[in-house]
Specification:
heterodimer; A: mainly alpha; MetI-like fold; 2 domains; two-stranded antiparallel ribbon; 12 helices; globular; B: alpha+beta; Dipeptide-binding Protein, domain 3; eleven-stranded mixed β-sheet; four-stranded antiparallel β-sheet; transport (chain A); MetI-like_sf (chain A); cell membrane (chain A)
Chain lengths: 321, 520
């Protein structure tokens, strides 16, 4: 297993390297001018020479290899660069925001996994029943709703009409410090919305997968031996169904990240979502590169974890390390 | 820490969700110390005036040498009196006894440092474009600053609203990257406690402010970029004052709506090098065919007024004779075109000497307001027999085509007619970036704009001449002035809207005088 981890890390380095070069080429192909973005509406009353001076200060008109070498050199010294759209070091932008995005995604993922496994298995056990039909109909309905629409609807019902939860923000707008309870209260709606929007896909998969394995020979055999229904369902049928599910979680992670960008925007959460959009619109290469590299690293890590979990769940699987 | 306690978080989320509705105010302070909360989409990139925060003053955190009152009239601030202009020399005497938030005294060196930093090419400041008349700035003693101009510039005092920073806090640092930009120290009525980017700015009163102790001791500026989300959070009662889009700014219980006039106009720039828009009869016909009143009600939801020139009707320099009635006169447009030899073809579109009356009108695709205005102009022009092809593009695609294709543009600030118009309509700025992209050329306008800035005794006449000539040549079709719409909680006293510029956010919004607001 250690061999596997070591080999994956060896592959990760060239992947990250290639990603960063790809980012640079895309950035160069973008027609957007970072100085124009920096100026905002002021650009229209600014002397073109003034804008050229700022571009020169930033070195964004230098040849591409020069810019890349400079960026890479700084990276090896632990300097991620200066964000031209946020006006602060890239490291500081990410440090201040990545935690909130990870919290949102982490909690959501936990709720999605637990909820879809439980509900999907129950639906499969009583397939064709009222619960099964109801939950499938609901899942298909939610699947077709855009996440920002769900978010606005949730705000309208739970924040405005019922007043149970705040409509947005990370803490109470008048709070002077960040407390656990305050943040938790503010995260209920975003997590719920992101969960509801992501869960149907997982839930339907678990339901079909468990329903299939309930017809497998080893499950029928377990039943025939007179084992308890719950033991058969969770111990035998679910465990078989779990294997393809684990693969799916790894590949589905980017979609969860995408959904979190929208949820962060609607609930005005200071995560990485809003700054990513701003960085892309403003040709803020240093920030975009850092976010892309982190995302790539997270996906590689998720794939590794999936593989490791696979070997743990199924003793027959031996990854050729 | 939060990430390591996911299971606990889940449990608490559930627990909190069950108890949340019982008492929403529990734990917050009593109402007398409750902060005033204002909300805006316009989060600043920096809080350093040198880099562009609060360049038009009213920045809550900083003071300039001068400030503007409710009528946008200049009044002394850090200067004891309005500075004295003597040809190209401007002398400012500082107010005595002013201190920065950190307790250090304000001196002339701080003023000199602020302006010299703006002029420094190493500093990424866009204000240099506004100060191109400034030659040098010097302190002649601890409380006297002398500005020397390259040429006589009548509205120079307007440029002295820029916030003054303490030299000590920034000397020897890279101003572009200084920590000061996020934790600034000023002399203004409020000082920064914390800034959570993307979320909010927390301010506390500067009780020793030279202008008097602020009425409210704590202020929060919430940053909510999305219009709909801001509207929903307003309805949930989170904010005391908030800017909303006109269609969302409807009255609801406990809140009232303020429509604030601006000097921010939208219009169609008509390039002289285009064979159709280069024809004066076509430009005049388009001008009278535009139904500005319909645009105000239809596109702006009533939050605006018809525009006929670049000097807003609220300005003392506005020339009333150039204004029209607001409604379209298609018959007059038809007659103008008939007389000039543009005759209607089989499809209703006119032509002259084989040239069809058709041109492209560009607009930035992401700006829905400009898009709707472009479509309205297109529909009005069609009635007069002129075909417009509206085209939504990015600025990068628009810029190289501005010389020959019409464009929906917008500018405007209420402070002085020289500020935008000098570069927008003078022929020597033709095709320089966004200045005069249509190559408008009029010797009368060139002279009037020059007189307006160099002959302080006769500015009113100069700008009257300018506006009349513009109305005769129609290089632009001015469509509407916008209004900014705010929703303010009932019982908030001291709200005194003033004419606003295009740029507004933390600074220069309806809460420009926030330090005098009180709550019943």
């Amino acid at each position: 297993m250690i061999k596997l981890v070591r080999r994956r890390l060896a592959v990760a380095v060239p992947v990250l390297f290639a990603t960063s070069i790809g980012m640079f080429l895309l950035g160069a192909a973008s027609p957007m001018d970072p100085a124009m973005q920096y100026a905002g509406a002021t650009a229209f009353t600014t002397d073109p020479a003034n804008l050229a001076q700022i571009r020169a200060n930033w070195g964004v008109d230098d040849p591409l290899p020069v810019q890349y070498a400079r960026w890479l050199g700084n990276l090896f010294q632990g300097d991620l660069g200066w964000s031209t759209s946020r006006h602060e070091p890239v490291g500081a932008v990410i440090a201040a925001r990545a935690g909130w995005t990870l919290l949102l995604i982490g909690v959501t993922l936990a709720v999605v996994l637990a909820g879809s496994l439980l509900l999907g298995t129950i639906a499969a056990y009583r397939r064709g029943g009222l619960f099964d039909r109801g939950i499938r109909a609901a899942a298909y309905a939610v699947e077709s709703m855009p996440v920002f629409w769900l978010a606005l609807a949730a705000i309208a019902v739970f924040a405005l009409a019922l007043g149970w939860f705040p409509a947005g923000g990370l803490t109470d707008v008048t709070a002077t410090s960040t407390t656990f309870g305050d943040v938790a209260h503010h995260l209920v709606l975003p997590v719920a919305v992101l969960t509801v929007s992501q869960a149907p896909w997982f839930l339907l998969f678990v339901r079909d997968s468990v329903a299939d394995s309930l017809r497998d020979d080893h499950v029928l055999a377990a039943r025939a031996r007179g084992l308890r229904g719950r033991t058969v369902l969770f111990g035998h049928a679910l465990r078989t169904a779990l294997l393809p599910f684990l693969t799916l979680v790894g590949t589905h992670l980017p979609e969860l990240v995408g959904g979190s960008v929208l949820v962060e925007t609607v609930f005005s959460l200071p995560g990485l979502g809003a700054v990513s959009v701003q960085a892309a619109l403003g040709s803020d290469f240093p920030l975009l590169a850092a976010i892309t590299l982190i995302t790539t690293a997270v996906v590689l890590l998720a794939n590794l974890c999936t593989d490791l979990a696979y070997t743990a769940a199924d003793p027959r699987v031996r990854i050729d390390g | 820490m939060l990430r390591r306690t996911l299971p606990l978080t889940l449990a608490l989320l559930t627990a909190v969700s069950l108890t949340a509705c019982s008492n929403p105010d529990a734990g917050t302070a009593s109402s007398s110390t409750k902060p005033l909360v204002v909300a805006t989409a316009g989060e600043p990139d920096t809080l350093n005036p040198i880099l562009g925060y609060g360049t038009d003053g009213a920045s809550l955190i900083f003071d300039g040498l001068v400030a503007r009152d409710a009528q946008n009239t200049l009044i002394p601030a850090l200067a004891a009196e309005l500075p004295v202009v003597n040809g190209t020399t401007v002398t400012a005497e500082l107010r005595g006894g002013v201190t920065f938030h950190d307790g250090t005294a304000l001196t002339a060196d701080d003023v000199v440092f602020t302006y010299r930093s703006v002029m420094d090419p190493e500093v990424d400041s866009l204000l240099r474009s506004d100060l191109d008349m400034l030659d040098k700035v010097e302190a002649t003693d601890a409380s006297t600053v002398v500005f020397t101009l390259k040429y006589a510039y009548a509205p120079f005092l307007q440029r002295l609203v820029l916030g003054i920073v303490p030299a000590k806090a920034l000397t020897g640092q890279d101003i572009n990257k200084a920590a000061f930009n996020r934790q600034p120290v000023g002399t203004g009525p409020y000082q920064v406690t914390a800034w959570t980017p993307g979320d909010k700015l927390q301010l506390t009163a500067n009780d020793t402010w030279w202008g008097g102790k602020p009425a409210t001791s704590a202020v929060v500026v919430a940053f909510v970029a999305d219009d709909n989300v801001r509207a929903q959070r307003t309805r949930a009662g989170e904010f005391d004052a908030v800017e909303l889009a006109p269609k969302l700014a409807t009255p609801f219980p406990g809140f009232g709506v303020h429509k604030v006039p601006t000097a921010d106009y939208r219009g169609v720039m008509l390039p002289m090098k285009n064979p159709v828009t280069g024809d004066l009869a076509v430009r005049k016909a388009l001008n009278v065919a535009a139904d500005r009143s319909a645009m105000v009600t239809g596109v702006l939801a009533g939050a605006g007024e018809p525009a006929y020139g670049p000097v807003p009707p609220t300005s003392e320099y506005a020339e009333p004779s150039v204004a029209g009635t607001g409604s379209a006169d298609t018959a007059a447009a038809g007659k103008l075109l008939d007389d000039a030899g543009w005759t209607a073809g089989a499809d209703g579109i006119r032509a002259k000497n084989g040239q069809r009356a058709t041109f492209t009108l560009m607009y930035p695709a992401t700006d829905s307001l400009r898009k709707e205005l472009a479509l309205a102009v297109t529909a009005d022009a069609k009635k007069a027999g002129i075909e417009i092809k509206p085209e939504g593009l990015t600025w990068d695609a628009i810029t190289p085509r501005m010389r020959s294709d019409a464009l929906i543009m917008g500018f405007g600030n209420p402070y002085d007619p020289d500020f935008v118009s000098y570069k927008l309509f003078r022929s020597d700025f033709a095709e320089q970036g966004y200045y005069n992209p249509g190559s408008y050329h009029s010797a009368v306008v060139d002279q009037a704009l020059q007189d307006g800035r160099s002959r302080p005794d006769n500015r009113k006449d100069a700008y009257t001449t300018f506006q009349k000539q513009l109305a005769a040549d129609v290089p632009w079709i001015f469509l509407t002035y916008l209004q900014h719409t705010y929703v303010v909680r009932d019982g908030v006293n001291g709200v005194s809207p003033r004419v606003e510029a295009h740029e507004h956010g933390v600074e220069n919004s309806i809460w420009w005088n926030l330090h005098t607001w009180t709550r019943a």
